[in-house]
Structure formats: structure tokens, C-alpha cells
From TrEMBL:
<feature type="transmembrane region" description="Helical">
    <location>
        <begin position="270"/>
        <end position="294"/>
    </location>
</feature>
<feature type="transmembrane region" description="Helical">
    <location>
        <begin position="306"/>
        <end position="326"/>
    </location>
</feature>
<protein>
    <recommendedName>
        <fullName>NnrS family protein</fullName>
    </recommendedName>
</protein>
<feature type="transmembrane region" description="Helical">
    <location>
        <begin position="41"/>
        <end position="62"/>
    </location>
</feature>
<feature type="transmembrane region" description="Helical">
    <location>
        <begin position="242"/>
        <end position="263"/>
    </location>
</feature>
<keyword id="KW-0812">Transmembrane</keyword>
<feature type="transmembrane region" description="Helical">
    <location>
        <begin position="74"/>
        <end position="91"/>
    </location>
</feature>
<keyword id="KW-1133">Transmembrane helix</keyword>
<feature type="transmembrane region" description="Helical">
    <location>
        <begin position="97"/>
        <end position="121"/>
    </location>
</feature>
<keyword id="KW-0472">Membrane</keyword>
<feature type="transmembrane region" description="Helical">
    <location>
        <begin position="182"/>
        <end position="203"/>
    </location>
</feature>
<feature type="transmembrane region" description="Helical">
    <location>
        <begin position="142"/>
        <end position="162"/>
    </location>
</feature>
<feature type="transmembrane region" description="Helical">
    <location>
        <begin position="372"/>
        <end position="389"/>
    </location>
</feature>
<feature type="transmembrane region" description="Helical">
    <location>
        <begin position="346"/>
        <end position="366"/>
    </location>
</feature>
<dbReference type="InterPro" id="IPR036927">
    <property type="entry name" value="Cyt_c_oxase-like_su1_sf"/>
</dbReference>
<feature type="transmembrane region" description="Helical">
    <location>
        <begin position="215"/>
        <end position="236"/>
    </location>
</feature>
Length: 396
């Protein structure tokens, strides 16, 4: 598949993800069912964006070109239909078959994505060939190590898709933990682990710096192991505690690595503040998860944990990285500048922090204010992204 076509379909996945981000924050703000928010946020925003950038980055990181040209349009249609079905079924009066159909579509979309990327890298599965140019030859060791965990991400995506289908359709479960098991497989096993694997290749180049190699060696294995232990052992026991420790080690290690990269660099582009704020929220989120494992679940803790990790760590980080690929300042439409982009990042980050604080304190007004801020941030992100896509690429 030629690079221009890959780029076009990558943008379309990212654009769909932006729409789902706005829908997610609106659903949370206006009191839609929890599962609707999860569908829009995880299955929609996070995993559509992951799919889009996966099509453009994974082949190049394995020194290959995408060899299944029909995969991106097929996965976009299936994932989008699936997300809408999963988001609709929690509402009263919507027949269960809508959710089953949504789960089937979404699982097929995930299968298309994994199949296309897997077939593309079939002769370089471990990623020993990294596509790293000679000017970056000193980065190859980290690049190879990061590549080795991409197949693990594929495995989690397939497992999470199956678990979603099993939970929705009443089939045999992998984790026995219902939707929570599927969420952890997809959010931690796909979203978070891919941020680690791609992040250790991408972010050092954005910042023209080098991550501490010892942290890379710790973060990736811990991030690969943690989701399995947590998803299969919610909400207690030794294995759950070990999983919580692994996830905490991974997030905290990645946070330290990114802060080191950021401090060492003189680059201060607006998108780079997204991961910086994201890792801070992620550390708070996994610390709360560690509290669940060793102390107990406080009132409002589950909601705060979910929002800090999914909206905070993943959401704010993804938005920041998106601005690196699609910098708003190159646009000429109203508001197309770094200040608006930074405002969107801060609204999302501060909004989720305020909401989580309100959830833990049991203050509904604070929760609502935080959700409103996050909704504003999502709308600004969508506005900037769609404005830039329309101006730069038209209908392509």
C-alpha cells in the first residue's frame, strides 16, 4: 500500500477517534450509562487512534510497508460500527442483539488490524529489522527491544476483542471478570503497552534525547506482564497484587523516563506537554490501583481510577502526540495555534484531575465541573484536528 494511502486512512482513523473522544466526554458529562462511556472512550477514541497510527508506524518500525491495502478501510468501518453498537446497548429499550452485533463488528475490525499488520511483518516478527537509519544507529538497541513487545500488543488486542464478545454474547470468558477484564486487557494490554513500545521509539526522537536504558528494560516487561495478572485476578489475591505492582512499576518507570527525556531536551513543542501531564495523571491512577490491591477500594475510587488512567494517562498522552503529527499551528483557520492546543491539553488534564478529586471526596459539583472542563478540552481537540484536516487535505 503506497504511503499516501496509508497516511490518508491513518488520518481517518484518528479523526474518528477524535469524534469518539467528544462523544465520550459528552456521555460522561450528561450522565449516560457507564458502559456507553467505556465504549466511546476505549473502543472508540483510544483504539481507533491506536489503529490509525498503528497502520502508519508499525510497518515502518519493522522496515516494511503495509501489504494489505484493503485492511484500513475495512477496520475503520468495522471498529466504528462496533463502537456505536457497544455504546448504544446499555440504554433502556435497546435490544441485546445490538450489543452482540457491535461486539462482533468490533472483534472483526480488530482481527483485520492484527491480521494486516501481522502479515506485513510476518518475516520479521521480533522486529530485529527496525528501519532505523544510520544517523540513529545508536538507537537500534532500544528500537529492537521495543519492537519485540509489539506482538504482545497484538495478542492483547485479540484477547480483549474475544473477551468483549464473550461478555456481550454470553460465551466462555478468558478472565471470568466480565467487562472489567476486557477493559484491562484492552486499556492496559493494548493502549498502555503500545504507548510504551512506540513511545520509547518516537518520543526520544521528538525530544532529540535518549531514555535511560535501565528504565526501558524494566518498563516494557512489567507493562507486558501486568495486564494479564490484573485482568484475570480482579479484585484481590496475590496475583492481583503482583499485577498491580507490575503496572505501577511500568507506569512510574515510563513517567520517570519521559520526565528525564523532557528535562534533558530543549524542545518545548506544544504536543510534548501532553505526555508530560499524561504520565503525572497515570502515576496517580496506578497508585490508586495499588491502593485497591493492598488496602481496599475507597468510595469513588473505581471511577477515579478509570478516568485518571483512560482519560488522563492515555487520553492526554494521545492528544499530545497527535499534535506532534498534526501541529495546529500550521493551519490558518481561527484558533489554529499552539495556545488553543495547549488549552485543550490543560482542560483535559485538569478536568480529569478535578473530577477524580471530586469522586474521591464525594462532591458532585466538583465532579461535574471537572467533566465540563474535560468536555471543553475534547471539543477543542476535535475542532483543531478537523480544521487542520479539512484545510490541509480537503476530503482526502
Amino acid at each position: 500500500m503506497n504511503p499516501e494511502a496509508v497516511s490518508r486512512w491513518s488520518r481517518r482513523h484518528v479523526a474518528a477517534g477524535a469524534l469518539f473522544l467528544v462523544a465520550w466526554q459528552a456521555a460522561v458529562l450528561f450522565g449516560a450509562p457507564h458502559r456507553t462511556g467505556v465504549a466511546f472512550g476505549l473502543y472508540g477514541f483510544v483504539l481507533h487512534t491506536v489503529a490509525g497510527k498503528g497502520y502508519s508506524l508499525v510497518p515502518s518500525y519493522f522496515a516494511r510497508q503495509l501489504v494489505v491495502p484493503r485492511a484500513p478501510p475495512a477496520s475503520l468501518s468495522l471498529l466504528s460500527l462496533g463502537t456505536v453498537g457497544l455504546a448504544a446497548v446499555p440504554f433502556p429499550g435497546v435490544p441485546a442483539v445490538v450489543g452482540v452485533a457491535g461486539a462482533v463488528c468490533w472483534a472483526l475490525g480488530a482481527l483485520v488490524l492484527v491480521g494486516a499488520l501481522g502479515w506485513t511483518v510476518r518475516d520479521n516478527v521480533t522486529g530485529r529489522q527496525t528501519g532505523t537509519g544510520e544517523p540513529n544507529a545508536d538507537r537500534r538497541r532500544v528500537d529492537r527491544f521495543a519492537n519485540a513487545f509489539v506482538p504482545v500488543v497484538f495478542g492483547y488486542l485479540l484477547a480483549g476483542a474475544y473477551e468483549t464478545l464473550a461478555v456481550t454474547g454470553g460465551g466462555p470468558s478468558l478472565t471470568g471478570r466480565g467487562l472489567a477484564g476486557a477493559i484491562h486487557l484492552l486499556a492496559a494490554g493494548v493502549g498502555v503497552l503500545l504507548v510504551f513500545t512506540v513511545g520509547f521509539r518516537l518520543l526520544p526522537r521528538f525530544l532529540v534525547s535518549y531514555p535511560p536504558s535501565a528504565l526501558v528494560a524494566v518498563v516494557l516487561p512489567a507493562g507486558a506482564l501486568g495486564p494479564t495478572l490484573v485482568a484475570g485476578n480482579l479484585w484481590g489475591g496475590t496475583w492481583f497484587r503482583l499485577g498491580a505492582v507490575a503496572e505501577t512499576l511500568a507506569i512510574v518507570g515510563f513517567a520517570v523516563a519521559y520526565v528525564v527525556l523532557f528535562v534533558r531536551s530543549d524542545r518545548r513543542r506544544v504536543g510534548l506537554y501532553g505526555p508530560l501531564l499524561g504520565v503525572v495523571l497515570g502515576v496517580v491512577g496506578v497508585s490508586l490501583g495499588l491502593h485497591f490491591a493492598f488496602v481496599g477500594v475507597p468510595t469513588g475510587g473505581v471511577t477515579a481510577h478509570y478516568r485518571l488512567n483512560l482519560t488522563g494517562f492515555l487520553g492526554v498522552t494521545i492528544v499530545g502526540i497527535a499534535y506532534q503529527f498534526y501541529p495546529p499551528a500550521i493551519g490558518s483557520f481561527p484558533g489554529a495555534d499552539d495556545r488553543t492546543a495547549l488549552a485543550s491539553i490543560w482542560c483535559l488534564a485538569v478536568g480529569v484531575a478535578v473530577e477524580a478529586s471530586g469522586s474521591l471526596a464525594g462532591v458532585a459539583l466538583v465532579v461535574t465541573f471537572g467533566r465540563l472542563l474535560a468536555f471543553v478540552g475534547a471539543c477543542l481537540y476535535g475542532y483543531l484536528l478537523f480544521g487542520l484536516f479539512r484545510e490541509r487535505y480537503g476530503g482526502r
